[in-house]
Amino acid sequence: MSSGTDLPEFVHPLFYGIIIASVLFGTSIVQIWIYINTNRDKWFLRCLVAMLFCLDLAHTCLTAHILHYYFVISDR
What we know:
Helix content: over 70%
Largest sheet: none
Radius of gyration: 17 Å
Mean pLDDT: 85
Number of helices: 2
Order of helices and strands: HH
């Protein structure tokens, strides 16, 4: 009996989480596109929206990288 972690148990929530995060990222892209084309808010609010979009992009990319590491690289 091994004392290591069960990889499928660890990866399943990450896998479903990245699917949900990717769908939500797509909806945030549409919302930001509409916001940029329709609103003329002050620079502070526009920068805040841009910063939140960048954080969402970083979260999606890092989660995808984690899955790539566990599915592709660690199997070698």
